[in-house]
Amino acid sequence: MRILITNDDGINAPGLKTLEKIASEVAGPAGEIWVVAPAFEQSGVAHCISYSHPTMITELGPRRWAAEGSPADCVLAGLHDILPEKPDLLLSGVNRGNNAGENVMYSGTIGGAMEGALQGVKSIAMSQFLGPRNYQAEDPFESAARHGAEVVRRLLAAPWDEDRDYGLFYNVNFPPIPAADTKSPLICRQGRRQTAGFGIEGQVSPTGRRFLWVRGSEQSVDTGPGTDVSANLADHISVTPMRADLTAHDRLDALESAF
């Protein structure tokens, strides 16, 4: 099996090392693992592509490349410039922090998997929720490292209905707890934390210039039964099937009557 992996935390991120181990377990001894990851952290860039300027790409070693671009750029580079053949699977992550709830909309980790799906490759995004029970652990990614390969195997065995216009991809979040306490995967919908979400905090530098910092919100807010955040807070792995189709299908009939 040939697996392409990327992330949004950057080529030197510890979560990428965890993902390489997961990919190696899934691919087996005869498999190929190709890494194409951002040269620098790209958290929060979502599905951005570097459409208006070129992306520098650097070979760091056998089957290992860094791109000065977004995760989606890395996927495009891997598929159309670096890999000799189309991969059997694309894995994106393991992100440092959850990509559940509204975080999905901002996530470069999700953006990488989404681009893989748009390119016709089976794709899975993987993220590690952080909290008081694992944030200061020797290995905060322990839950993902222990259970990631089995989740991927189960998803590969499930139907992917690849004949749809917008291909299926999966969003997997591991709970913020040690691996031994992690509970079985739950199939979930994307939740929404009823908080203010991201905001802005301004600061004035010593030189009098004003800078704005994006400020996150409380992540441990439950999002209700059947949702990804709720599953993670209850110590379960969450698995959410996704597509890049943003159509509000529930509003189509109502709009027909309005027009």
Question: In words, what does this structure look like?
Answer:
The structure is a single chain. The chain is an alpha/beta fold. It has a single domain, classed as Survival protein SurE-like phosphatase/nucleotidase (Stationary-phase Survival Protein Sure Homolog, Chain: A), CATH 3.40.1210. It is built from 6 helices and 11 strands. The protein has helices at 14-27, 71-82, 108-118, 142-157, 228-233, 252-258; strands spanning 2-6, 32-38, 57-61, 64-67, 89-96, 123-128, 169-174, 183-187, 199-204, 210-215, 236-242. Strands 3-4-2-1-5-6-7-11-8 form a 9-stranded mixed sheet, with helices on both faces. A two-stranded antiparallel ribbon has the order 9-10. Strand 9 and strand 10 (210-215) form a beta hairpin. Helix 1 packs parallel to helix 4 and helix 2 runs parallel beside helix 3 (108-118). The chain is globular, with a radius of gyration of 19 Å. 43% of the residues are buried. The model has no long low-confidence stretch (mean pLDDT 96).
Going by helix content, strand content and strand pairing, the class is: alpha/beta
Order of helices and strands: EHEEEHEHEHEEEEHEH
- The percent range for strand residues is 25-35%
Rg calculated over all Cα atoms:
19 Å
What is the count of structural domains?
1
Secondary structure: number of strands: 11
The assigned CATH architecture is: 3-Layer(aba) Sandwich
Low-confidence stretches: none
> DSSP helix count?
6
Main-sheet strand order equals 3-4-2-1-5-6-7-11-8
The biggest beta sheet reads: 9 strands, mixed
Report the end-to-end length measured between terminal Cα atoms: 51 Å
CATH topology: Stationary-phase Survival Protein Sure Homolog, Chain: A
